[in-house]
Specification:
five-stranded antiparallel β-sheet, alpha+beta
């Protein structure tokens, strides 16, 4: 029965398909640059290099580029446990249901309602039979009815088609939002993980420095006891040791907070979650960047904004359809009788069939204002889309420049660490020989410790910038992965897509 009805409605829809009103949709233009400026800068200098060839794309599980098994295990938990992703998926399911609600308007509405009524009626009096002339006669009437009513409003001007088109675009935008939520959580997890590992390295360095300062304190005490050193040097060594011990203790706060943040991202209580301490030995991978024109198809947030422009365009067509008359086809058939025994007998069948046409003659400018509203809404959505695209170009350039400059800075910082170590060796030897005061040793050790901390922080920042670059490039996603209109309407989209 449903297949037969679909054929009839399909034929009528095909006959009226050319009557769809509303503007044709065109993706707003955002002229990109031919290439990223920072890629050219890297080719001329000695900074961080992007992957070759330039038109390569990030594929699959991008976090595996870093080669860290613990990070890989954590990332696998994000998609199934993160509650922000679960909420975004539920939002997409709502958008998909709205599409199916709109599609239901393509079909007739069929209702049935059985009714039984008993009523008392007054009839005009009839002369004769003992009744006075002009008097009324009361009678009780039963009515048994079983009507089947059908109504259908053909989509003559494309109102429903535009409505479906707009809801599909909104569902596709919601699907892109889901992908973007997932990518954001994955990138945030990777960034938190690298910063946690950076804290591990800072804790290791500070612990080693505390041990070195403890030995220096023992040396100053020994020299003081033998009459070579001074009590002032001992006090200075004690202050240096206690201050560094405090710093080592304080580092535990940041590490615990990063660990708790990761627990939240993988959907676990922070009280039951922990990450073991390990060495920070992660190399920076080359990242395929591509060209700016590809970025518009790779970013899920840009795709979401583009689909909202398409939705706003379709809503203009819905509003413009209100200018045209509405045709409604109605039919009713069933049984009606005054007695229960004869209710469903064939002679007691009733039916009616007929079309009706309605048109609004005056609405005080309501339809024109509605169309103007949706045209302005499309302009706003287009501006939001262009702004998102420009922001994406900026983010890629920011992270590319950050990686390039950080690479140079790391090389310079490594040279600073080497020079500081040499300074410590010289100052320590001269102090042991009694040539210089212990304050020179403290100055040299403080310089070395500071430069070592900076070197670790720069490597950590470099990895975080690399993660942000991958996120800015879309994390390996592209617009071809958006569900089609058929997929959305048929419910063929899975959580992991």
């Amino acid at each position: 029965m449903r297949s037969w009805a679909q054929r009839i409605i399909g034929c009528v829809s095909a006959l009226t398909a050319g009557c769809t009103v509303g503007p044709a949709y065109h993706t707003p233009q955002v002229p990109p640059a031919a290439a990223y400026k920072e890629v050219a800068e890297q080719s001329e200098g000695t900074g961080w290099k992007v992957a070759q060839p330039q038109d390569a794309v990030i594929r699959g599980k991008w976090w595996e580029l870093f080669g860290d098994s613990a990070l890989n295990d954590l990332e696998e938990q994000v998609d199934v446990s993160n509650q922000n992703i679960a909420g975004a998926f539920a939002s997409f399911m709502q958008a998909r249901a709205i599409v199916r609600q709109a599609q239901a308007q393509y079909f007739p509405t069929l209702t049935v309602g059985a009714g039984v009524t008993r009523s008392r009626q007054q009839l005009a009096g009839i002369s004769g039979g003992g009744a006075a002339a002009g008097s009324s006669v009361a009678t009780t009437v039963n009515d048994f009815s079983l009507p089947f009513d059908a109504s259908w409003t053909p989509d003559l001007w494309g109102r429903v088609r535009n409505l479906v088109k707009g809801d599909v675009a909104a569902a596709q935008s919601s699907a892109a939002d889901l992908v973007n939520t997932r990518l954001t959580a994955q990138a945030e997890l990777a960034a938190d993980y690298f910063q946690l590992r950076g804290q591990d390295d800072l804790i290791r360095l500070t612990t080693e420095t505390v041990n070195a300062y403890r030995k220096s304190l023992q040396l100053t005490r020994a020299q003081y006891e033998t009459g070579i050193g001074t009590d002032e040097a001992v006090a200075q060594a004690e202050v240096q040791l206690r201050t560094t011990e405090t710093q080592a203790t304080n580092l535990g706060i940041a590490r615990a907070q990063y660990e708790h943040a990761i627990a939240l991202l993988v959907g676990k209580p922070a009280s039951n979650f922990s990450i073991s301490v390990t060495s920070f030995n992660i190399k920076l991978p080359p990242v395929p960047v591509g060209v700016p024109s590809q970025l518009l198809e790779r970013r899920p947030d840009i795709a979401a904004d583009e689909r909202l422009v398409a939705q706003a365009n379709a809503q203009i067509g819905v509003a413009e359809a209100a200018y045209f008359p509405t045709l409604t086809l109605s039919a009713s058939a069933g049984f009606e009788s005054s007695t229960l025994a004869d209710w469903l007998k064939w002679p007691n069948r009733v039916w009616s069939l007929g079309p009706s046409v309605s048109e609004t003659l005056f609405d005080a400018g309501l339809r024109g204002a509605t169309v103007a509203q949706y045209r302005a809404a499309q302009d706003q959505a287009a501006a939001t889309y262009r702004q998102a695209a420009l922001t994406a170009f900026q983010q890629v350039e920011d992270n590319l420049s950050g990686l390039r400059i950080l690479m140079l800075e790391i090389h310079q910082q490594e040279d600073a660490v080497t020079s500081s170590q040499r300074y410590v060796n010289i100052a320590t030897d001269r102090y042991k020989l009694g040539l210089d005061p212990y304050l020179d040793v403290i100055t040299a050790q403080t310089s070395l410790f500071s430069n070592q901390q900076s070197a670790i922080s720069l490597r950590m920042q470099q990895l975080v910038d690399c993660v942000q670059l991958i996120e800015a490039l879309g994390g390996g996603w592209d617009a071809t992965q958006l569900p089609t209109q058929h997929d959305v309407g048929a419910g063929r989209v899975q959580h992991g897509n």
